[in-house]
């Protein structure tokens, strides 16, 4: 594709497998010169292709007892695939990340550490990718971090960042909320309205991006995780409740209203054919309304709320203003609304329509459902679990989070242009909730959000006095102690190590163009070279360029003929034009190609996402409501970490094994901390017992 392109590689390590993602974007310093005014106010444009993705099984967590085999038996296939597409001279300048989500989070810490160390050692010894810091590039990330990356990816694809005027939802709000549900947990990320932002300032994360013109872009985002509220763990909790409810009876059969009629399974969900069994058996009754009532208590709405407001399980969440907060749901939100219940891919979510489909499906006899299925094992399992998942999703969305019920309750009016609102209505993005798998044919993946953050960190700041780095951390002034850097630097490729594009190679490009020019255009091209000559500063490069250009004009000298110094080549021409030859050259900045890239299609295996711990289904990517009264809002009961260790090594790293871990060699990392030391956090006397879940944990010694 061109010399001035950046590449990035991310390995999404989920529970069922690992998926390779390759992204590419134009080097920001070159992209600036060919960008329009609108593009200058936008984030860097990333591109990917179907063939740049690859998923293999099983998940890396299966190597917990044999970490020495994870490289040769697992990672090698993905690395070999990446090397097919990334140019050889770009590999050393290409960062590689492996970020583990589901599966790895469930391993004991010693096994996690052993695996990540073996992974880093293998990649360093067997590849030339940029991997300067193991703790930066090889991580087990928390659900909150994953949720924030998903929020970035969603708004990047929908245009909430680059075209805010086209996405005004009212009250100056132009971003979309993000909902993700996997097997073991569920995430939420959104920007509250102005009132809630001020009221709950210390609960928010400050996200800093940088547009192509170097302008800072700041967002204040709330993100949290409900551990144990993924569909698989919720199902386990539900079955346990059934055991408690029916154990006193002498019958070994427990009626289950969350399964189709006459479906018989063990408590673990394995189908049972025999009519009699000594072990407890679940027998489906297909009564969906009763299923909704039995799953509702699992939300924990009766739990104490020490830091109001709360939504689910007593966890604090700022109040959600559904007049302006519109949520995109991925992973289980997509599969559970579209899988066995049908529906077109671009169909907007309608609660009344969806609930009717679920009732009709779950009231069928299991043998009738089974006769319409393929023989695939996953199809059968999805069919027998669909009714429970649907009831759980409905309760979480509408009773837990408080999403208005589209199709039953009225929706707010929108103050946007007619064309914009009609397009958004068609896609459902102006509804309080819309499940998606892809946006404009692009699969929603948190890995995209991570790489958008990385690419934004490579944009030079508009002002040399702007030292605020790209990344995210606590919502305080300056650069907070827990700030997680984007992991990139805004150094130009020519100053980086590895095989990045050099100014010499750009000079060669000029020479190649010169040879292809006609005689009539040659002098115009020469004038351009002389005009920009002052940009070349280094003497060795200046002399090489001068010699090459001079050779274009020098006529071959016959053997034995006298030399005519200034009368030959460029020396003679410059002498006649300027009186003497010029020996001072500066750099020539190539404007680069004018082609603008957008993300291409990403192939989706249409499997269940690994976005949360413990998901039983594959998928490394993601996918993109109903009114409760007023503002609605959960409190994360995890241990609070108020600080992290910041090593003062020459590598300039900020290390976090659980959340985002980054490394920067730019001056962004050298921000003075004097103001930061005196920047106090906003007091919240009314919530002394509130515990927060930061996106990072302290450094552990190696």
TrEMBL record:
Pfam families: GDA1_CD39 (PF01150)
Keywords attached to this entry: ATP-binding, Hydrolase, Membrane, Nucleotide-binding, Transmembrane, Transmembrane helix
Sequence ranges of Acidic residues compositional bias: 598-610
Spans annotated as Disordered: 486-507, 596-631, 672-702
Keyword Zinc among UniProt keywords: no
Keyword ATP-binding: yes
Membrane spanning stretches: 519-536
Cross-referenced Gene3D superfamilies: 3.30.420.40, Exopolyphosphatase. Domain 2 (3.30.420.150)
Signal peptide residues on this chain, from the entry's feature table: none
CDD domains from the UniProt entry: ASKHA_NBD_YND1-like
One GO BP annotation of this record: UDP catabolic process
Catalytic residues (positions): 146
This protein's GO CC annotations: Golgi apparatus; membrane
Entry GO MF terms: ATP binding; GDP phosphatase activity; ribonucleoside triphosphate phosphatase activity; UDP phosphatase activity
InterPro entries: GDA1_CD39_NTPase
Entry binding sites for ATP: 183-187
Family: Belongs to the GDA1/CD39 NTPase family.
PANTHER family: ADENOSINE/GUANOSINE DIPHOSPHATASE, NUCLEOSIDE-DIPHOSPHATASE MIG-23
The protein's name: Nucleoside phosphatase family-domain-containing protein
